[in-house]
Task: inverse folding
């Protein structure tokens, strides 16, 4: 089991790398039968400057903007009443910062969850949506109209994102016995919610998760 004790008062919350926990993932098909966690919620990280400027952040290390920090401070108050026992975040700065704000209010250490990282489309990172449209006009229309069929060589597609995110959630659930909160990204959140609602990836754009919004996963 993971040690969930909060750090000493006055010390910053840290990311604990639980590599031994995350090395072997249960098969996704066996997850519901084997899960130990009582319930799992997820949130999308707080707002960033990339969100404000309509840029594709991807794996760039965008920090929270002022509005994003305020969003998470309000959300942390809500989370304080949820009875959370464990807190996990993807490794990028915006998810880590979001989780630390919640962890500070709830007395929880933030555990790193590499499988919750954003999609890997490196040639799009940091670009505005309009710049992507101009520079990669053969890719972007498919991403908008039919994201479940989108595929670019040497990049992740939605199926790959969903598979590694589901595997990560399965590993976390097997390690926990209480109420868990995951901090992740919009694309990952959509893929996870579709999986556990048993809906196809073709419904990707029907899933709405705002910055700083909580959604029940299990």
Result:
């Amino acid at each position: 089991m993971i040690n969930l004790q909060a750090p000493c008062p006055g010390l910053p919350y840290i990311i604990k790398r639980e590599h031994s926990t995350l090395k072997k993932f249960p098969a996704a098909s066996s997850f519901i039968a084997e899960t130990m966690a009582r319930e799992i919620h997820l949130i999308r990280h707080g707002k960033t400057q990339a969100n404000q400027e309509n840029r594709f952040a991807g794996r760039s290390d965008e920090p929270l903007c002022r509005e994003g920090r305020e969003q998470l401070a309000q959300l942390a108050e809500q989370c304080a009443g949820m009875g959370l026992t464990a807190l996990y975040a993807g490794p990028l700065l915006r998810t880590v910062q979001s989780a630390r704000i919640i962890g500070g209010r709830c007395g929880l250490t933030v555990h790193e969850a590499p499988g919750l990282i954003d999609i890997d489309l490196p040639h799009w990172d940091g670009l505005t949506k309009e710049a992507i449209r101009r520079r990669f006009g053969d890719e972007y229309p498919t991403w908008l109209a039919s994201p479940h069929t989108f595929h670019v060589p040497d990049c992740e597609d939605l199926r790959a994102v969903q598979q590694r995110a589901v595997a990560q959630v399965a590993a976390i659930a097997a390690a926990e016995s209480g109420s868990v909160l995951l901090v992740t990204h919009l694309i990952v959140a959509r893929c996870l919610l579709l999986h556990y609602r048993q809906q196809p990836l073709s419904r990707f754009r029907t899933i709405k998760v705002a910055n700083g919004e909580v959604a029940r996963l299990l």
Q: What stands out?
A: The CA atoms of residues 172 and 185 lie 17 Å apart. The chain has one domain: 26-216.
